[in-house]
Automatic annotation (TrEMBL):
Organism: Actinopolyspora mzabensis
Lineage of the species this protein comes from: Bacteria, Bacillati, Actinomycetota, Actinomycetes, Actinopolysporales
Residues passing through the membrane, by range: 52-74, 95-117, 137-158, 165-185, 220-244
Alphabetical UniProt keywords: Membrane, Transmembrane, Transmembrane helix
Entry annotated with the keyword Transmembrane helix: yes
Name of one Pfam family that matches: ABC2_membrane_4
Protein name, UniProt field: ABC-2 type transport system permease protein
Domain of life: Bacteria
């Protein structure tokens, strides 16, 4: 509990997490509401209210990466490890605090985006009355928490802010899409990319709409996709924790 409290205080006593939280909320809510309010009626579904979710996730990953790399940048991680020699416990506490914060931000942003869109459009299509619609909205917090684990792990491995942020953003936004362009095997590999699995969790299982009719069928179901997404993130985090223990701070 003491470690969790310390990591919470370290996170909230700097400006960058506050700016990241505000930016994530603004992007997720603002873009979702804008799309839902301006899209044609056939595109105005619950999933459309979460159109800003991906950009919001990018900001959450920036927040998570900075939570680790800033300590290495200013050398405060050395004092932390001297006070608490158990490096694994320190990093697990940091990961727990950041992932919990990411989950809360994701839930708040998702339900705000849906609620404001519902008030603006007044459409019955935005009523949460099916399982996939609840997953579209309530699932965003789980994806944000998982994405934070990826960024935390990369931050521990790279230990440099610009490098860690570049890696996680380029991977999520560009690399996975480029994988899908590979001849013959691209689509099969893309189906097992972690952030593609996260998107399948949020969007999969819904009735076909003009917006989703061109999406290929995923090899596993939505909840299995979430488990896979989180499992890969946890595995990457374990590798990062082992690396932190073996090398100098």
């Amino acid at each position: 509990m003491t470690l969790l409290a310390i990591e919470r205080m370290k996170l909230f006593t700097t400006r960058s997490p506050w700016w990241c939280m505000f930016a994530a909320l603004l992007l997720t809510v603002g873009l979702g509401v804008l799309y839902a309010a301006t899209a044609p009626a056939e595109f105005t579904v619950v999933g459309a209210t979460q159109s800003g979710g991906q950009l919001g996730m990018m900001v959450i990953m920036v927040l998570a990466a900075l939570a680790v790399t800033t300590e290495y940048r200013f050398g405060t991680i050395k004092a932390t490890f001297q006070a608490v020699p158990n490096r694994t416990a320190v990093m697990l506490a940091k990961s727990g605090v950041v992932a919990a914060l990411a989950f809360v931000i994701g839930e708040i942003a998702a339900f705000l985006a849906w609620g404001v869109s519902y008030l603006i459009t007044g459409g019955e299509t935005l009523v949460l009355d099916a399982g996939h619609e609840w997953r579209n909205v309530a699932g965003l917090g789980l994806v944000y928490a998982g994405a934070a684990l990826y960024a935390l792990a990369v931050g521990m491995l790279v230990r440099q802010s610009a490098g860690a942020i570049s890696l996680v953003i380029v991977w999520a936004l560009l690399v996975e899409s480029l994988v899908g362009l590979l001849p013959r095997v691209g689509d099969d590999i893309f189906d097992w990319m972690p952030f593609a699995a996260a998107n399948q969790f949020l969007q999969g299982g819904a009735p076909q709409t003009p917006m989703t009719s061109q999406m290929p069928e995923a090899p596993i179901g939505p909840w299995a996709s979430l488990v896979y997404f989180l499992a890969v993130g946890v595995a990457l985090l374990v590798i990062a924790l082992i690396t932190v223990r073996k090398r100098d701070a």
